[in-house]
Structures are given as C-alpha cells and as structure tokens.
Amino acid sequence: MKNFILILSFIFLFILGDRIISKCLITLSKYSSLPYAKIYSGRAKSEILILGDSRAYHHLNDSDWASISRHKTFSLSITGSPMILQEVLLRDYVNLYGNPKTIVIELNALISPVDKVISLKYLGLLSDNFKQLMRIYYSKQLKICQTFNLFFLNTIDYLNLLHKIAIEYDQPKLVGEMTDNDLDNLINKEYSPYFQNTDYNVKSLERIIRDFGEDVKIILIITPFQKNFLENQFEKDDWFNKIESMIPKIIKIFDYSESVINNEYYFDDRHLNEKGVKKLLNNMNKDNFFQKLI
To answer: CA torsion 69→74→78→81, rounded to 10°?
Structure first.
C-alpha cells in the first residue's frame, strides 16, 4: 500500500511539474518578436494581413508594404505553411483583434502540404484552433502532448521563438542568385507537375472567403516564378483557371507570376532574391497595387 501511494504521489508531482514548467515556458512567447508569437500577446493589431507560405514570407515584406501603403501591415506567412494553417492563425487573429481591413493571400499556400503543422506544435498551448488542427492530422502526437505538455515544446521552432526574445526578428529577404549550373539543372529537369492543390487547402480558402469575404477586402496574389520553371509547368494555366472559377468575381487575382524575368533576380526557381523583391515592388507600384489595398 505504501509503495502504491508513493507511485501515485510521484505521478501526481510529475504531471504537476510538467504543467507548471510548460506553462512558464510558453509564457515566454509574449516576449518573442516572432510574428506568430505576437498574435497571442496583443502585439499584432494591423489593417492589412498577409497570408502564405515561403513565397509570401520572402516576397511580400510587411515593413515594405507598410512604408509604401501607409497602412499597418502584418504578415502571418510561414515557410512551408499550408493554407489550412494560415486559416488557423487568421481565425485566432480575428478572435483577438477583430477583422482587419484587408487580407492578402499568396496562392502557393494552396499547394503546400500539412507537414509544417507539427513543427509548430507549441501553438497548441496557445490556440484551441491549432489543437483542433492537430487532432485532425496529428492525433497521436496531440494525445502525447496533452499527456505531457512539455512535448508541445519539443521542437526547433520553439527554440527559434526563444531566440527571438534576445534577437529582434526581421522578415528576411533571400541573398544570392541562381548560377549557370542551377539554370542548366532546371532546364534539364524531368517534368513533374507543381501546380497541384490539396483538397484541404482549397476548402480552407473557400472557408476564408465565405466567412470573411463580406466584411473584409480579400486580395489574391501570385508572386513571380523563374521563367524556365514556368515553361516546364504545363498545368499552371489550368491551376489558375480552377482557382478563378471557385472565387467570387468581386475578388481579384493579381498574377505577377511572369512579371520578373531576369535570372539575376532569383535565389532559386521559385523564390526571388532581395533585388527581385525590389523589382516586384516596382512592378506593383506601376500597377497602383498599393492604392487598391484598402
């Protein structure tokens, strides 16, 4: 009987310690300068939100946009993020701050897989919507995390969050450009279709338009691809047409996919470098894009 009581006491103290330590550690997020940490600590109120994966993250810089448009802009974009993860962050944002005036969505997030969710599992300590996302796609990991809360924090992305307490976050632009060897490899690469949406991302975009489209201006955008990459992707036009057919006519797609041509502007076949981002901004300015945001 004594041993049994000792075992129960140990289990109780272990679980209590797990909850207290994980609570303390996740509380540190309110001091982090990472954008998705700012959402949950009252530091993200903005007029314009940018959603997307790495192509939004590296191409659509919120500081640049705020400077040009003179409207406070906040990017929720994350490298590798599927639309369904961006939807979670958007809903959490709206629950905390209310609707923004404009939501800008880079459409490559329709293609991105759901894998990124698990590396951000610490958000499960901050967001019920994120826990629901884990319940759908990573139910076993969620059960482990709910049993031992410290497992929510067992990820490099949480360490990055801590790192951005000491080091101020700055939305990065890519440095470097494609080499002749990179270009040769791209030209000779065997065809593999890239523009293929996943059903869960398409449904996510439909929900965003349905739930926010009446009260918020929604703008869809496709940022540039390297020209040889696009030449190999025969399915791109069909991809674009399918998206166009599923959205209300009032929502405009700004297609800048072929707007930046020279290889000196590309870090790789799907990402602009810093010079390329400046070139894209110039093209958008010529279109009066930023005057149409709000």
So the answer is: -90
The answer on pLDDT for 14 being more than 80 is no
Name the burial class of residue 286, with classes exposed (0-12), middle (13-18) and buried (19+) by CB atoms within 10 angstroms of its CB: exposed
SS3 content of the chain, % helix, strand, coil (to 5): 60, 10, 30
Among 173, 212, 181, which Cα is nearest to 86's?
212
Separation of alpha carbons 117 and 168, rounded Å: 24
In which residue are the tokens 């047409």 written?
Answer: 241
Confidence of residue 9 (pLDDT cuts 50, 70, 90): low
Location of structure tokens 């930023």: 290
Question: Residue 271 forms beta bridges with which residues?
Answer: 268
C-beta atoms surrounding 55 within 10 Å: 24
Arithmetic mean of pLDDT over the chain: 95
Distance CA 82, CA 64 (A): 24
Q: CA nearest 257: which of 278, 286, 236, 288?
A: 236
* Nearest partner of 85 among 198, 224, 225, 172, judged by Cα: 198
The answer to whether 67 and 106 have CB atoms below 8 angstroms apart is no
β partners of residue 220: 105, 253
For each of the domains in the chain, give its residue range(s) and CATH number, in order of start: 1-29+121-154 (no CATH), 32-116+172-292 (3.40.50.1110)
pLDDT reading at 12 higher than 80: no
In this prediction the pTM is 0.94
Q: Are 104 and 49 in contact (CB under 8 A)?
A: yes
Of the candidates 204, 238, 212, which has an alpha carbon nearest to the alpha carbon of residue 84?
A: 204
